[in-house]
Design brief:
The complex is a heterodimer of chains A (about 120) and B (about 110). Chain A has about 120 residues and is an all-beta fold. Chain A contains no helices and eleven strands. By secondary structure, chain B is mainly β.
């Protein structure tokens, strides 16, 4: 069965960086685009970006350009999201999610459990 | 890019129908039939319930339906059930990126 297992909660100081991992299993890792979405406390979902696990190519939301880096390791079927220059407004639950089919680049049908990142001095 | 616009909350009684709107622009919803809807209960990850405007993934009840007119997409839930109480988020493709709405809290009275 498809599973996306994310790394554990993080507490970071303003200005630091955080790297969240998402280990995939139950499907061919390189066949499906992966997205990162975050949700601040009590807020809606916010799209951060997409990665093609096969090629490693990425696309980021304009808001995060220059601050976010998405990578993958095909040997471990893991995608990573690193966010730098953290500020308090980055406190949120960060999700990785897989697209629905091999033939689309959106419609997220499998989600990780979420990783809470808290930014506080 | 601004988020898609959803009403903060809607409510309905069991058995009734409710519709949640999601308003975008001619650059997103108006240009692409790539609108998705997600259901989220507290403390859990979102669940895909509608894709490509009006398609339901396997296992999603046909009480859930989606549509689009111009720059506005809509999610209709008919025959409301208590377990439908949740947050609902719309999403649209837009020029090599994805946008979400602010989310709508559905209360089943």
């Amino acid at each position: 069965q498809v599973q996306l297992v994310q790394s554990g909660a993080e507490v970071k100081k303003p200005g630091a960086s955080v790297k969240v991992s998402c280990k995939a299993s139950g499907f061919t890792f390189t066949d499906y685009y992966m997205h990162w979405v975050r949700q601040a406390p009590g807020q809606g979902l916010e799209w951060m970006g997409i990665i093609n696990p096969s090629s490693g190519s990425t696309g980021y939301a304009q808001k995060f350009q220059g601050r976010v880096t998405m990578t993958r390791d095909t040997s471990t079927s893991t995608v990573y999201m690193e966010l730098s220059s953290l500020r308090s407004e980055d406190t949120a639950v960060y999700y990785c999610a897989r697209v629905r089919t091999r033939f689309t680049d959106m419609d997220l049908d499998y989600w990780g459990q979420g990783t809470l990142v808290t930014v506080s001095s | 890019q601004s988020a898609l616009t959803q009403p903060p909350s809607v409510s309905g009684s069991p058995g009734q129908s409710v519709t949640i709107s999601c308003t975008g622009t001619s650059s997103d919803i108006g240009s692409y039939n790539r609108v998705s809807w997600y259901q989220q209960t507290p403390g859990t990850a979102p669940k895909l319930i509608i894709y490509e405007v009006s398609n339901r993934p396997s296992g999603v009840p046909d009480r859930f339906s989606g549509s689009k007119s111009g720059n506005t997409a809509s999610l209709t839930i008919s025959g409301l059930q208590p377990e439908d109480e949740a947050d609902y988020h719309c999403s649209s493709y837009t020029s090599s990126s994805t946008m979400f709405g602010g989310g709508t809290k559905l209360t089943v009275l």
